[in-house]
Amino acid sequence: MISTKSRSARLGVAAALSAALLTGGTATAFAAPNTVHPAPRPVPHRAPAKSSITFRVRPSSLRSGQRITAAGQGTGLAIGSRVQLQRRIGSRWSSLPASTALRRGGVYSLTTPLSIRGRQILRVLDGTTASSPVTVTVR
């Protein structure tokens, strides 16, 4: 059994420690200097550069097996990234065996023969960025 005297002593020590911790914590909180922080400056938001590809074909009308030259410029695309010439077949795009890398300034040029007769719809693709379609007539 614990005597009343030792219980009172323990209770007194616990109360003194609690009071010291409480007043010590609040005293330092009240003693801290009142520092006013300046409002954060707004950071200008830069929208990601939109990428685009221009595309032109010469000649726009040719004989079967004749070579076409596709040229243009990529904006917002990495130099050295590959552009791929594609042909539309129905509602899908099919890659032709013609691709090249973007050079300094984002320019590109590629040459390939077209042999399927009729109206061909072509575009150039770099990853997810595609040019506007161009129509070529193969006789």
UniProtKB/TrEMBL annotation:
Keyword Signal: yes
Tagged with keyword Signal: yes
Signal peptide extent: 1-31
Top-level taxon in the UniProt lineage: Bacteria
Keyword field: Signal
Descriptive protein name: Bacterial Ig domain-containing protein
Organism of provenance: Streptantibioticus rubrisoli
